[in-house]
Amino acid sequence: MSCWMPECPALSMCRGLAALPITCLERAKDLKTRLGILLHKPELGHKIGSSRKLQLGSRRRDSSQEVLEWRESFDQLLKSKSGVNAFHTFLKTEYSEENLDFWLACEDFKKTRSKTKLASKANRIFEEFVQSEAPREVNIDHETREITRKNLSGATSTCFNEAQAKTRTLMEKDSYPRFLKSTSYQDMTKQATSRGTSKRSHT
After folding, report:
1. What is the band of 47 on the pLDDT scale with cuts at 50, 70, 90?
2. What is the mean pLDDT of residues 107-115?
3. Which of 110, 119, 124, 127 has its CA nearest to residue 164?
4. From CA 22, how far away is CA 130, in angstroms rounded?
5. Average pLDDT taken over every residue of the chain
6. For the segment 168-194, what is each residue's pLDDT rounded down to a tens digit?
7. CA dist list (Å): 128 to 30, 43, 125, 141
8. What's the sign of the alpha-carbon dihedral 82, 84, 90, 93?
9. Gap between the Cα atoms of 18 and 202, Å rounded
């Protein structure tokens, strides 16, 4: 006589898990890990927030001097992350931000080490900024455009050097002086000067 007993639910579940493909189990583990990270996020966010407050404090101390340094030279402006952001905002008002975007793309391009990525990035930059009737075509002469096109056949970190230099010169001689005279930069320098004066009066 056979004795029937109900199967243990836990045993049934284990058998069910064993029957699942390995990829499903790996996904489940990955999901569990992600949930764990999410559960700990508030604490992590608090730590990040605290460190950001400290960084902002130090930035406020240096920002006044930094703003005034932008008028010393175009190089000084380009060295400053906040300076580049302010200049980019100004260029947007003149509908010429593609010049700075191209220059920044070239700077990023030079840091690429992989030859495969170098070639794909070079083509992408050329198609977006350099070729005739590109979506965000920069203002360079035909000769520079053709030299850059030829450089793409054996893309190296220097293939945009000439086009980048021409664009930089154009910004330095044309857009940069207008930026320094702009209302937005004048307001920033006034604020920076007043902060410097108030700091001196408190010491």
Report:
1. very low
2. 94
3. 110
4. 49
5. 78
6. 999 999 999 999 999 999 999 999 988
7. 38, 42, 5, 16
8. negative
9. 72
Q: How many Å separate Cα 19 from the centre of its chain?
A: 46
Measure the CA–CA gap between 121 and 168, rounded to whole angstroms.
Answer: 20
Average the pLDDT over each of 57-71, 130-144, 184-198 and give the range with the smallest value: 57-71
pLDDT of residue 30: 53
Cα-based angle 8, 13, 18 (whole degrees, multiple of 5): 125
Q: What is the pLDDT averaged over residues 47-61?
A: 39
How many whole angstroms separate alpha carbon 200 and alpha carbon 6?
Answer: 85
Structure tokens at 132: 């005739």
CB atoms within 10 A of CB 156: 13
**Residue holding tokens 């947007």?**
92
Q: Which domains does the chain have, with CATH numbers?
A: 62-194 (1.10.167.10)
* pLDDT recorded at residue 49: 42
Task: Match 């583990």 to its residue by tokens.
Answer: 29
